[in-house]
Amino acid sequence: MNIRITLRSLRLFTPLIALALAACAPAPIYKVSAGTVAVTPMQVAHSPEQYAKGEVIWGGSVIDVRNFPDHTEIEILAYPLDSSQRPLTNGQAVGRFIAVYPGYLESFSFPGGSLVTISGTLNGSRNEQVDQAAYVYPLVSVTQSHRWTAAEMRAGHPDIHFGVGVGVGIH
After folding, report:
1. Among 36, 77, 115, 122, which one has the highest count of C-beta atoms within 10 angstroms of its own C-beta?
2. Distance of alpha carbon 76 from alpha carbon 127, whole angstroms
């Protein structure tokens, strides 16, 4: 069998291939509103007053869970999000933040290293220590959150690879 791919046919199928691959990715879990600011926790930490009361959609890896009488705080190492708002942990971290939940959350439900995405409102900042260094944590009052399962993190990542190479076959 001899398959001949012309430049013209490649141009015709490229949009279809791109559409098919895009259809594999899950939709974002939170709607971006007019009040949503596209900044990283690190940017907010440098000038928290500039982003006061802005809405954010951030995600990352759980570092610690602390319960208080009327709320729970989860410290999160933030990562950029993909188009489905899943944390991209293979990239560079973009700061840390504290997600503040009303009421009590069981720390067992958010073990260290678990991946989360939150939607909420910036509500000030807090100066703390990370090891021996001073650090400014943006505080986010959480309105919605999602803890990602391993299956959800794999979803939408097809095992399709395109490339150019040389193949050897025996006839």
Report:
1. 122
2. 15
Domain ranges of the chain: 41-154
Tell me which residue of 87, 132, 84, 92 sits closest to 113, measured CA to CA.
87
pLDDT in tens, the chain (171 residues): 555 555 455 455 455 444 444 445 567 878 888 889 999 999 999 999 999 999 999 999 999 999 999 999 999 999 999 999 999 999 899 999 999 999 999 999 999 999 999 999 999 999 999 999 999 999 999 999 999 999 999 886 544 444 454 545 555
As given in the structure block, the two tokens for residue 124 are 């000030």
Separation of alpha carbons 159 and 152, rounded Å: 15
DSSP helix/strand/coil, 32: coil
Give a three-class secondary structure readout of 45-97.
Answer: HHCHHHHCCCEEEEEEEEEEEEECCCEEEEEEEEECECCCCCECCCCCCCCEE
